[in-house]
Amino acid sequence: MKKIGLLLVLLVFLESCSNDDSDTKKQPDVINYYGTWIQHAESRFANDPSSKQFSYIFRKDNTFSKIRRYENINTTLTGTFKILKKDNVTQFILTYPKYNPLISNCTNDLIESFNLESVYLIDEARACDRSYVFKKI
Question: pLDDT tens-digit profile of 1-24?
């Protein structure tokens, strides 16, 4: 009887120590991040040219391009990025080599950051009244 009890305790202990990867399986695979993300606007703003002026291209070598197309003029910024995953949050951190007023943040530094929510990249500068949202094409 002692052997059965010890066996049951051992099985419960081993089961409680098993690694449940279900949370990490819910996160998109990093390969899906690469490519072009375009500015997404709610339907009520769909005809406003300023709601579709920005896009990003993320490359596998961890470089990116930010393109602004407005009034038939293209402006391109480039830099590097990294993707951080923590506590079910995927965050894109973009770093530019020099300042440009098109960098979207609340601090005027060289970094932009986005959170991945469902299929959208949400600009963290929304805290200072910017509400850029991007969707991969």
Answer: 555 544 544 444 445 454 444 444
Identity of the residue numbered 27: Q
Residue 7 counted as domain residue: no
Range of the domain at 80: 28-136
Kindly report whether the global pTM for this prediction surpasses the value 0.85: no
Name the helix (H) or strand (E) containing 58.
strand 54-58
CB atoms under 10 Å from CB of 51, counted, come to 17
Residue 118's CATH number: 2.40.128.490
Residue 81 Cα distances to 33, 61, 62, 65, 112, angstroms? 11, 9, 5, 10, 9
